[in-house]
Amino acid sequence: MLCRLTSAAVLGIDAIPIEVEVDISGGLPGFHLVGLPMGAVREGSVRIKAALANSSYSLGCSRVTVNLAPADLRKEGAAFDLAIAIGSLVAKGLLKDVRKDLLLAGELSLDGRVRSIRGVLSLAELAARMGLKGMVLPAVNAAEAALVEGLEIYGVETLQQAVSVLAGGEGAVRPSDPTSVREENSGVDFAELVGQREARRAAEVAAAGGHNLMLVGPPGSGKTMIARRLGTILPPLTRIEAIEATKVHSVAGLLGERHLVPERPFRAPHHTCSHVGLVGGGAPPRPGEVSLAHHGVLFLDELPEFQRAALEALRQPLEDGQVTIVRARQSVTFPSRFMLVAAMNPCPCGYAGSTVRVCTCGEKEARRYRGRISGPLLDRFDLFISVGPVPTKALLGGEPGESSGAIRERVARARRRQAERFRRKRIHCNAQMSARQLGRHVALGTRSTALLTEYAEAHRVSARALHRTCRVARTIADLEDRDDVTEEHLLLALTLQQARWML
Hints:
Elements: E1 2-11, E2 14-25, E3 30-34, H1 39-42, H2 44-54, E4 63-69, H3 81-92, E5 102-104, E6 107-108, E7 114-115, H4 120-129, E8 134-138, H5 142-145, E9 152-156, H6 159-166, H7 197-209, E10 213-216, H8 223-228, H9 239-251, E11 266-267, H10 275-279, E12 280-281, E13 286-287, H11 289-292, E14 297-300, H12 308-312, H13 315-320, E15 322-326, E16 331-335, E17 339-344, H14 363-370, H15 375-378, E18 383-386, H16 392-397, H17 404-421, H18 435-441, H19 446-459, H20 463-479, H21 487-495
Parallel strand pairs: 3-4, 5-8, 8-9, 10-17, 10-18, 11-14, 14-17
Antiparallel strand pairs: 1-2, 2-4, 6-7, 12-13, 15-16
Helix pairs in contact: 2-3, 7-17, 7-20, 20-21
């Protein structure tokens, strides 16, 4: 007897439908899986037989043939276990009148429990696009699937519960709505930062416009402290942004007990991270740090210590907002729209130009150290800030700085202006403006044009750097609730780039 059920596989962050065909016939007993199954899928035959036996179901001495169609696509993971087990029961005649309008996905343990799987949100979106009524999936993943409206969600803990649902014995159990995006208290605040007025201002501008920020200074001056507090002044995720970020984290298996990413991601990989870990890859391809930071912040501390190949791999994701990983058999695309924040010392010992300690590096050594960061990568930063040490007297007895909450209100107001400006475009902030949009929304006067021309000729900056300067000026104007970009806004934008010429 033949049974056909619907399951799905995740390719990148998107899901594709997989038809699970199970046939039980006479002949030599065996369990045969075809359709390009990889290791975890092939091993499923052992899990499935044990799960069926421990759930009081027996296939007897049967010849079971399972085909996962389309047959030319490699199948990864253990999410097909549940569909294969149910299909085996139907093909054996132990289960009748099974609903065919549901998508089945779940890993089975040997005792018949249904374990969690990755990429549930992508599977749920696929089920909705296919016009299916709902899903049968692990109970721990049910709330994640419930983010997609219009589906009947059947969260099951055991194989026997799944059989009961498919036989019509149980109704859909829709989890409580997990779609609200809440603010989490990260435990850090800009009020803890003493001094550093220019760096504070740069962080506010960067957060308001989604700009990339470079912090240069000696050890202990507060670079990492500033970067780790950037997330506290960013506006909350919108529901659409939260769902996009959740899809990436779900595919990567990083959701844990959460069902929705509640706040903007902050990723800070160690400088030993490989280029595959940074931009994604592997077999099968998995999202890297640039994708896990989607709609959030990617912080690279000690930037020159990263591998050159890893840093150069950042250039395309920074420009396109996505990274495409091409392999011989497949090509996948992951989203990667993030703010890049980097920190570095001015030289190997860290004290070049410092008034605290004498630099022990030669000029040639310091130049070689800074040269580890290529010009094209530097060109993709909008703001360059020199962060100097805070005087001891101010550090020990200074007034607390402005709180993250107060800064966040101004940032949110500026972001609302940008959202209104780009309400019909597929962009969210000033940093994403194209050259055409830049010409429309940043109208420079005669004096501003002359100032920018003089600056460009003096420093021989690229067209990309000039455009980034204009985007920063537009953000500064938004923070001041101004519709026009004035010469003062442009001057401040140039001031916030002065540390560029240290590198």
